[in-house]
Amino acid sequence: MNKSRKKYIIVFIITISIFIAVFSLVDFLDAKKRQNISQLQDRITVDLIANETQFDLLKNAPCKAINEAILSRQLGELGKKLAYAEETQGVRNQSVVDLKKYYSLLQVKDYLLSQEVSEKCDIQIESIIYFYEQECNDCIKQGYVLSELKKKYPWLRIYSFDRNLDFSIVETFAGLYDISETAPIIIINEKKYSGFKTVEEIEEYIPELIEKKIHEERVKGGEESIQKKYPSADIVFVSHTDQEYSYRVFEENEQDVEYLDIDLTYDEAEDNFSFSSEKLGKQE
Amino acid sequence: MEYFFYIFLFITLYFQIFLLISFFENKEEKIEKPLEDSDYLSVTIMVPCYNEESTVERTIKSLQELDYPIDKLNIMIIDDGSIDNTWNVVQQFRDDSRIILMQKENEGSKFAALNFALAHIDTELVGVLDADSWVSKNALVEYMYFFRDKEVMATIPSMVIGEPNGILQKSQKAEYDLGLFARKAFSNINAIYITPGPFSVFRKYVFDTLGPYKEAHHTEDAEIALRMQKHHYKIAYSEKSVVYTVPPNKVKPLIKQRVRWVYGFIRNVIDYKGLFFKKEYKELGTIILPIGVFRVFITVILFPLSMWLILVPLLKFLRKILVVGYNPSFFGSFDWFFVGASQIQIFTIIGFFMTIFTIWIGRELIFDRRKFTIDIVYMLVVYTFIAPIWLIKASWNALRSKKESWR
After folding, report:
1. What CATH topology corresponds to A3-206?
2. B100: β partners
3. The pLDDT of residue B336 is above 70
4. What value does the mean pLDDT of chain A take?
5. pLDDT at residue B406 above 50?
6. Best CATH choice for the domain B16-286 from the list 3.40.50.300, 3.90.550.10, 3.60.20.10, 3.30.70.1890
7. Inter-chain contact B323–A25, Cβ cutoff 8 Å?
8. What are the sequence ranges of the domains in chain A?
9. What whole-number percentage of chain B has pLDDT above 70?
10. pLDDT digit string (tens) for A165-191?
């Protein structure tokens, strides 16, 4: 065969191979994604059923058990994946639309359940309801702000609903808050805020967020100062009043199950803890 | 539409791979044994100047310092009717026996000045050096290794940007280095289609047999090369002969220069379309020229599009930072769910790495050690925005004037 013709063919083969490689890589990734989306659907279905069950349990289960079961479950992970699927597959993709409907339903259920728990067990659950629209510039920015808040305050519950999703439940839910404005709209403690809101603004609307964060840091700080004194101890936070933080400390390798009840006083000016009392106790 | 796009992409990729393979083809052209006295051919270097008072001095000095026997080298300075101080500036070289100073009326084109000088030359070799460029000491001697081959009719140098300043010139530096790769690949398959103004050296025989320079849409350096190719005259590339040139440092002159180049290239290739798809012209006729012209048109689409695909995620990221600040978070676990790419994105990445790779080997040719420099980034960004301007303008002009000439 002619030498230069051979070269044309070799180059053609290489080029074709690169094309095939690229297209099959994309196919592979797409297949992975489709598989993941169907897994997502399964998980949402399971969650929906779990939610139903917890509602029934709530009637006679103790608050403590319910609390943990509900508050530890996070929809955030599902939401993140859904948002990504939306971005890559397009908002009009049928399986994305279906997923979003399921997810919206799950969110409404979760919201109702957490309201119920909050009332029955008298605990505060910080949550934000967020209505957005497709192709809305402020909504993209608002989305960034909300994910930032979620990162900062992991216990914050954010329920986001796409108003363009043709789904009666979302409409009913929106009707509860009498929404006529254009997105983004945020609802915090039954109060409606419309227009783009920054991280700082939202933190102002929910002062509990910062308070809780400070409280968490204090509790942790107290633990650290006890740890310095008893490096190998197990520390459990018990309660706090004002500037008093009480802990129960279990020393390891003790024959009898003894424990120390320690009270710490927090000094705001100095930003440190001092030991105010230590009491030895024994478990029966 | 999408399919057209992939066909374009396929042709572009085919061309790049073709060049890559050609680049690594081994071609024994240069005869390595030491030069003998008879290998030093007599040379005249023509330096046409039109209003070059600030740069011509450096150009001539670099020629004076060439490592070449004094009695074999002539330097012919042609003042092409400059209206600035050029003629006075070159007077300082009057006493050098190798230097001949000439003056003529300006006729609005460089080719006329070159032909004017050609009429006075009877050395075996004749070269050109633009008055804004300067040569390295060994540039001419290196050529003689190639001219030992009786079939080599012209030799071209490695053109690089000397002392680049500012983003625009640095972008051009990266581009020129990339061009070295292409030049080497072309030379390996005997497909050099331009003998650039900075330091191309010909056998006088070329002009004696093929005639003098032509107007050639203001790109006489492309026309003469194509004319040589048409007659199967061999053009060699001496990568060790480095020539430095000063590029435009403003956007407008750069666009003007490139419109002239691209326009001239398209028009000349159309004038020489007889070379297309003829067996005797091999790769030059089957691939290099046809795809070369075609590429001008598709680059208008492909280059900005691929850059756009890189810039969009970047802009999105920036917008996020503007809203909530930069808070990197690290995913503890890898999740296949968040991995995804489109074909075009992957091709863009392939193109990006190919660009870097070709610049790398271009620099390897001239022993430039600094391979990955910021000017590559400048080039990618700057050319995204301004290259389409000259490509579109030149293509448009070429199409329009073609129509006119048909009337």
Report:
1. Glutaredoxin (3.40.30)
2. B76
3. no
4. 79
5. no
6. 3.90.550.10
7. no
8. 3-206, 210-282
9. 90
10. 888 888 888 888 877 777 788 888 888
Q: Of the CATH numbers 3.10.450, 3.90.1150, 2.30.30, 3.40.720, which one belongs to the domain with range A210-282?
A: 3.10.450
| ipTM of the complex in this document | 0.81
Residue B205 token pair: 């025989």
A150 CB neighbours in chain B (<8 A) are none
Residues of A within an 8 Å Cβ radius of B: 4, 7-8, 10-12, 14-15, 18-19, 22-23, 25-26, 29-30, 32-33, 36, 81, 84-85, 88, 140-141, 144-145, 148, 151, 198-199
pLDDT, tens digit, for every residue of B271-290? 998 999 888 888 888 888 88
- Measured between CB atoms, which of A26, A33, A144 is closest to B343? A26
**Predicted local confidence at residue B158, as pLDDT:** 95
B82 contact partners, CB below 8 Å, separation of at least 6 = B49, B50, B51, B52, B53, B106
* Closest to B184 (Cα-Cα) out of B368, B352, B363: B363
Contact B323 A145 (CB under 8 A): yes
**Nearest Cα residue in chain A from B19:** A11
Above 50 in pLDDT, residue A253?
Answer: yes
> Higher-confidence residue: B337 or A15?
A15
Residue B193 exposure: Cα atoms within 13 Å on the Cβ side: 26
The residue of chain B nearest to residue A8, with distances taken between CA atoms, is B18
Instruction: Tell me which long-range contacts B365-371 makes (C-beta under 8 A, separation of at least 24).
Output: B365/B158, B365/B180, B365/B181, B365/B184, B365/B239, B366/B158, B366/B160, B366/B177, B366/B180, B366/B239, B366/B240, B366/B242, B368/B177
Closest CA to B88 of B36, B53, B48, B124: B53
